[in-house]
Amino acid sequence: MTSIPKTDFKKVLKNLYVASAAPALVDVPELAFLAVDGVGDPDGPGYREAVEALFGVSYGVKFGLKRAGVLDYSVMPLEGLWWGAGERQDLPALDRSTWHWTMLVMQPPQVDADLVAETVAARTRKKPSGSLERIELRNVVEGPSAQVLHVGPYREEPATRDRLMAFVGESGYQISGKHHEIYLSSPTRTAPEKLRTILRYPVTAVSVAGGGG
């Protein structure tokens, strides 16, 4: 069997998966993700089950494409969209039980809904989970966005987020989408002070009123 070169989509999409402590603007194209929606504390069992199911399907899809001789690639990192009940971006400060989230793993173009359905069915037969039936292939469109790298514990993100918000305003933009996090480090294998997380928000230019005509 001919070996297939392995693709690293973090390098292909380098500007989206590499960030620095200096906030920057990026243009995010439409991308496909495996997605699972939920509500509740990210330290709770429902969240953990959803993430486990998401990665189970992600690896199943990857190995399916590799066995078929279509593509070999590294599974992408976990990402999450976060928002509060009835809100577009901001999370409530304390009550994590009300947090809404969509956890995501980016997929290559060769992944289609049929492959995902087959993989979910196979995973369900092997290890049933209530989260599996909620996993779907979904396109996400963010477009112009601002992002920054946060290094350290998740609980210290607000200071980094404030710097990003200040940059957005100073650059003539406003937030136009959900709080987006990309987890470049595993919290189970990385010390809290070394965790690397990209914080991102879609943005739109602030319109300037006035002018004659």
Automatic annotation (TrEMBL):
Q: Can you tell me which residues the record assigns to a coiled coil?
A: none
Domain of life (superkingdom)? Bacteria
Pfam families on file? GyrI-like
Record-annotated GyrI-like small molecule binding domain positions: 23-202
- This protein is called GyrI-like domain-containing protein
The record lists the organism as Plantactinospora solaniradicis
